[in-house]
Amino acid sequence: MSRNIVIIGSGFAGTMAALGASRLRHEKGVSPEELTITVVSPTPEMVIRPRLYERNPEQMVAPLSELFAATDIRYHQGSVETIDNATSTITVARGNGTSATLPYDRLVLAAGSDGFAPPIPGLAEFGFAATQLDEAVALDRHLHALAQKPASAARNTVVVGGAGFTGLEVATEMPGRLREILGEDADIRVIIVDRSEHVAPAMGADPRPFIEARLRALGIETRMNVGIAALDDKGVTLGSGERIETMTVIWSAGMRASPLTAQLPAERDNLGRLIVEPDLRVPGGSRIFATGDTAKARTDSVGNYAAMSCQHARRLGSFAGHNAAADLLGEPTLPYDQPIYVTCLDLGPDNAIFTRGWDSKVEITGAQAKAVKKEINEVWIYPPAAERTAAYENVLYARTADF
């Protein structure tokens, strides 16, 4: 009798989950007809989200159809609306207004996350973001449209809400992008606003002097210990009362897991992530595994948890897919682990910082770190070649490598 695994999402975690399940199926000599693997997502593409702060964001997608064909993975186009744990089915909305119901024997939830926008007056109407492809494309079009407006302080000023990883990468890219659009002589002003005491608060003290020095070198201002209180069509007002005239406010402060996690009867954290068992199974849903940004999973024995990052999503996905297939094939599931944690933070056109460990000890800075960041962004995080052996080696490496 045929059994099936359904994977919601074709991002880093979803793609690696599909490959992980396909690899184990192949390894055990099970045919694709005996165990079907189906990926459900709006398009058969992986959005390279870590690069959406760069120029030409519409190019930051990687096609998956050939890879899926090479590894006998089926694809179903649409957006998942509901998960019915009781009947082991999902409802998928199609683009033509109709819907389909898909049954599953095992489900892997890899639906990712969305940017979190708090109820700040005017943010929805006048703010921009770069956490999703459509947002990044809209921001890019807005930046290019600034060239058609009369020169002014507001036109030349960008305010970035958030001094975390995303905010810093967006902000440090802005001076170069704006000068390309507005001219090298344009008086560009970029301001980061955050309620934290320091920039990159999650990274701790060790990398902070280098990051702050890079911001000063790029002429980027900071407003710390204060938030954005309101936006309008002419600028922002900070909680301190300071008024900044600007046509461009980019919100980057925070992510939340896909709202599909709320449909499962399991505990979630404050980011909406499902608190999963060691093998990434969702408690109370024995047929469901969560992975990537939808899962709060322990990375090690000392209490660290996976971050919402492609670094963790790829490995989480490879474990979740393997375990979903193993569960159906009578094989033991594997406890997820990822004890090595690194960060490579982009800091402008020719600079970056590379740190290792949860305490972010600096290992490489400057042009050398930028070369590593370029390799990560342009090679490492992309899907493997559309060839079975290469794909299976890639997913095995993601699951077993000591980074």
TrEMBL record:
Task: Output the Gene3D superfamilies linked to this UniProt entry.
Answer: 3.50.50.100
InterPro entries attached to this UniProt entry: FAD/NAD-bd_sf, FAD/NAD-binding_dom, NADH-Q_oxidoreductase
Q: Which cofactor is recorded for it?
A: FAD
Q: What are the protein's UniProt keywords?
A: FAD, Flavoprotein, Oxidoreductase
Pfam families in the record: Pyr_redox_2
Q: Which GO terms describe its biological process?
A: aerobic electron transport chain
Q: Name one GO molecular function term.
A: NAD(P)H dehydrogenase (quinone) activity
Family statement drawn from the similarity comment of this UniProt entry: Belongs to the NADH dehydrogenase family.
User: What is the designated name of this protein?
Assistant: NAD(P)/FAD-dependent oxidoreductase
The organism is Shinella kummerowiae
